Every structure is written in C-alpha cells, then in structure tokens.
C-alpha cells in the first residue's frame, strides 16, 4: 500500500478525500496536516503532522495529497515533487497554465505521478451524460448546456475563499469543473467567449460566469452563479435526433458530509426523481422516457491514480487537458 500524507482537513481533505483513502486497498492514510482533531474512530492510527516539511522529510510517505488553499497549490506541489513524492493536487491545479506546465515537466523529470483531483468527472450526472452521448440516441450533438449553481448569498466565513488572490473566484472553483467536463466530453474548443461577474453584496471575487465554447457545429454553454435559489436543469443536450434534460446534483458530497461513507450501500445514488428525460427517434419510432442515473463514485479517481503509480497506466485525467482548461480560464479572466 502507498503511504499518504494529506495536506489540509477541511471540506476537501476531511470529507472528499480522506474517506476514500481510508477504505482503499491501494492507499494507507498515514499523516494529516491539520489544526483540527482527527477522529480516531473513523481514521484509526492516522497521525498528525506538524507542518508540510515533516511530510516531505518522512521517507515512508510516497504520496502527498494537497487540499490546501488554491494559492498554495503550485508551491506545495513543486516542493513535494522535488522531495520525490507522487502528488494528488486539488483543483484548481494552479493559477496559470505556465505554472501547470512547469509542474508537469518537473513530474516527468522526477519520474513521479502528478494527478489533479477532478472528482466531478465521476459524478452520477456526468457519467450518465457521457453514456447518453456515446450511445448515439441523440444523434450528432448540436448544443450542450451545463449549470453549476448554488444559493450562497452570504460570504464564505473562510476568509481565504473570498480573498482576491490568484486562483480564487467561481471560475477557478466551479468553472474548473464545468470546463474540465466539456474538454473530457468534446476535447479542446476552437474558441471561447464569455464573462465573469460579481452578484453578491460586498464580494471581492467573481461569483458568477457565463461561457460559450465553440466546437464548430457544436455549441457549449457553461453557467454558474451563487445566487440561484430555484435551480433549473443541470444539463440540457440537443442533437440531430433527440434531446436529453437532467435535473438535480450528484449527492456524494452531501453523503460524505453527513457521515455516509463510499463503501456503504446506496452511496452516490441520486433520488429517482432526478432521472433524466430523453426524447428521441429510434428507427423511425418516436420515443420519450426516463434515463436512470448512474451511481456517482469518486472512488474511480483514486483507483485510477493508484493504477497510474503502480502499473504505469495512462491517466483518465490528463494534465495536458487541465492545462487547456487553465488557458481558457486565463483568457476569460483577462477580458
């Protein structure tokens, strides 16, 4: 098993990563950098590291997972790679594509795996959308619209999340997921237009965006806001012979925060009311019905990360795709 040092024990470290490391047959969660107590009933034997250097100096730790504030990602990842560690890096990977390229080159030079925590490639809804598109039941895809909306009018009590620092704001936070999903499904777009803006009172960062990715015949629209109380569909996809609409969000984060772990029955399963609707024409027959949503499973990410380290397999989440994503973010922020 690969010994893991975890940097940060907030939402991402405590709930989105630590449980998966804990139940994995590939990883052993050894140490966590945190000021919070580590619940031993959930993470028996997991120690507390005093600082980042302690993790780097521990020769038994082979993997460092970085869940610290966004503006620390580049520096921490660079130090971990130079210390000979494999790195799992929370998104956004870095503030700039240039920093991401530098880390990729360093990982190759050190013969270490650098992997980005784009867990939402393994959301219930995105996995279902991918299968619907690949099935051909919609024909050639002409338009794809995705939303990642929340209702959070009150500023985040975590000051670093609201600070106007590099790699902060909704485009780096939620936008990174939506752009990554689009690149995963359709590749790098021919061009991108859009804007980011601020809607919450007293906010110092962008908290809404509207992007348009041009793939030629296919047009992709990505939207997000922290001021949407009554949310519409998460995905609307139109093709030459059919349409697919999906409401509701992946429930893994809610499950994890509530204490529901990945190995428990029903984990990641959305309510049936959230099943998507398809209208299409198959062999000349008009059809309308429901598409059952796959169970979400971020565990696939950890399995893939382990396989890349142990077996040298090709990663599902490629750093080159993340670099494309960061170039898009930078181009929009520069406007």
UniProtKB/TrEMBL annotation:
Positions of the Gfo/Idh/MocA-like oxidoreductase N-terminal domain: 2-118
Tree of life domain: Bacteria
Ranges where the Gfo/Idh/MocA-like oxidoreductase C-terminal domain occurs: 130-332
InterPro entries for this protein: Gfo/Idh/MocA-like_OxRdtase_C, Gfo/Idh/MocA-like_OxRdtase_N, Gfo/Idh/MocA_oxidoreduct, NAD(P)-bd_dom_sf
Pfam families on file: GFO_IDH_MocA, GFO_IDH_MocA_C
Listed SUPFAM superfamilies: NAD(P)-binding Rossmann-fold domains (SSF51735)
PANTHER family: CONSERVED EXPRESSED OXIDOREDUCTASE (EUROFUNG) (PTHR43708), OXIDOREDUCTASE (PTHR43708:SF7)
Name of the protein described by the UniProt record: Gfo/Idh/MocA family oxidoreductase
Organism: Lacihabitans lacunae
């Amino acid at each position: 098993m690969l010994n893991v040092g975890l940097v940060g024990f907030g939402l991402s470290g405590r709930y989105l990563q630590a449980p998966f490391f804990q139940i994995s047959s590939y990883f052993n969660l050894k140490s966590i950098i945190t000021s919070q107590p580590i619940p031993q009933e959930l993470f028996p034997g997991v120690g507390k590291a005093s600082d980042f250097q302690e993790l780097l100096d521990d020769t038994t730790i082979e993997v460092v997972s970085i869940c610290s504030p966004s503006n620390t990602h580049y520096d921490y990842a660079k130090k971990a790679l130079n210390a000979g560690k494999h790195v799992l890096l929370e998104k956004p990977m870095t503030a700039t594509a240039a920093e991401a390229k530098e880390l990729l080159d360093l990982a190759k030079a050190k013969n270490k795996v650098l992997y980005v925590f784009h867990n939402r490639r393994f959301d219930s809804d995105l996995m279902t959308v991918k299968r619907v598109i690949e099935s051909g039941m919609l024909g050639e895809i002409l338009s794809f619209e995705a939303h990642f909306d929340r209702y959070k009018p009150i500023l985040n009590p975590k000051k670093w999340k609201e600070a106007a620092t590099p790699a902060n704001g909704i485009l780096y936070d939620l936008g990174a997921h939506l752009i990554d999903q689009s690149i995963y499904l359709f590749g790098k777009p021919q061009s991108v237009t859009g804007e980011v803006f601020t809607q919450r009172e007293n906010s110092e960062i962008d908290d809404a965006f509207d992007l348009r990715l041009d793939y030629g015949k296919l047009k992709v629209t990505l939207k997000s806001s922290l001021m949407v109380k009554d949310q519409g569909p998460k995905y609307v996809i139109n093709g030459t012979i059919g349409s697919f609409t999906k409401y509701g969000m992946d429930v893994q984060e809610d499950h994890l925060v509530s204490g529901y772990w990945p190995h428990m029955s029903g984990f990641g399963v959305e309510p049936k009311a959230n099943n998507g609707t398809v209208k299409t024409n198959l062999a000349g027959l008009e059809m309308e019905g429901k598409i059952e949503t796959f169970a979400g499973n971020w565990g696939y990410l950890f399995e893939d990360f382990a396989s890349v380290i142990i077996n040298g397999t090709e990663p599902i989440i490629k750093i080159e795709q993340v670099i494309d994503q960061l170039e898009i973010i930078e181009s929009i922020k520069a406007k």
